[in-house]
Write a structure and sequence with these properties.
It is built from no helices and nine strands.
């Protein structure tokens, strides 16, 4: 959690809160809340689930609380072979770019489908390699 407070105007300028919860080794839940005075107020949630050996599903969404719309949703399915020599992924990204500088000025909706296959030691073939996902990841404290 972090925030900024303007001592001159005596107002809270920003507030960021991030909580992760891991009820079991195979499931992690994240929630993030961002508030900016006279600006954006967004919430983001991620579910990270290892539902079978080698299989992982991540789903994330970002909600714009001012317009009550989902600005972005990501879904990722990953398979990592138990031998750790190959794996593949399938991803879907759906975005509502309302603040776009496009000619329509109303923004644009965008949906992307991405796929990849990896052969460890040989390399990988992927579509959309420069894409950024909104998924959160859990880092263990050692």
């Amino acid at each position: 959690m972090d925030s900024t407070y303007d001592v001159n105007d005596k107002v809270l300028k920003t507030l960021n809160l991030q909580i992760g919860f891991r009820p079991m080794d195979a499931l992690t839940l994240y929630f993030e809340r961002r508030f900016t005075r006279r600006g954006d107020a967004t919430s983001m949630a991620t579910v990270d689930w290892d539902f079978k050996k080698g299989w992982n599903l991540k789903a994330s969404t970002r909600l714009d609380e001012i317009t009550a719309t989902h600005r972005e949703s990501n879904l990722s399915l990953l398979y990592d072979d138990p031998c750790k020599c190959w794996g593949f992924n399938v991803d879907v990204i759906q975005r509502n770019n309302f603040n776009s500088t496009s000619a329509t000025s109303a923004g644009a909706q965008e949906t992307r489908f991405l796929m990849g296959i990896t052969f460890r030691g040989l390399g990988s073939i992927q579509s959309g390699t420069k894409e950024r996902f909104i998924h959160k990841s859990f880092e263990r404290i050692k």
